[in-house]
Amino acid sequence: MELDKDSLQFIFGSTIRALHKATALAFENGGLELSPEQFHLLKIISSKEDSIQTELAEILQLDKSGIMRHIDQMEAKGFVQRINDANDRRKKYIVLTELGSSKLDECKAILDKMSDSILKGISDAELLIFKQVLSKLKENAER
């Protein structure tokens, strides 16, 4: 079977892999100890007051064990910590530490520079249309 390099699925898949690889490399070259997935996890944790593992898994569409691995790694580095719920000992909140907040800021600065590079030659109007089309594709796929 011949590979259809013009198919939407191939273009999306290869683009996502290229962006993921570029992000991981930019983080590594910037001296950060985070994967792109961990960056997204930190971003979500920083935006929510009460983050629990189950909610994080749902938001990122990962299984609970995958989220737990990321949280364990980030906790070992001091980027997040687990806080026990006062009423339910089984429930633990994941909160961003000061170091985690600092790492998040560093990631954002690296991604801002990277955005300038990857969006080169793309107008604001084209980017807006692209985002609208992606939203429609996602909406249709979830039906």
From TrEMBL:
Residues annotated as domain HTH marR-type: 1-139
**Record flagged with keyword Transcription:** yes
Family annotation (InterPro entries): HTH_MarR-typ, WH-like_DNA-bd_sf, WH_DNA-bd_sf
Alphabetized, the UniProt keywords read:
DNA-binding, Transcription, Transcription regulation
Q: Which Gene3D superfamilies match?
A: Winged helix-like DNA-binding domain superfamily/Winged helix DNA-binding domain (1.10.10.10)
**SMART domains linked:** HTH_MARR
Molecular function as annotated in GO: DNA binding; DNA-binding transcription factor activity
PROSITE patterns given for it?
HTH_MARR_2 (PS50995)
Q: Which residues form a coiled coil?
A: none
Q: Could you tell me the superkingdom of the organism this chain comes from?
A: Bacteria
What's the protein here called? MarR family transcriptional regulator
Organism from which the protein derives: Emticicia aquatilis
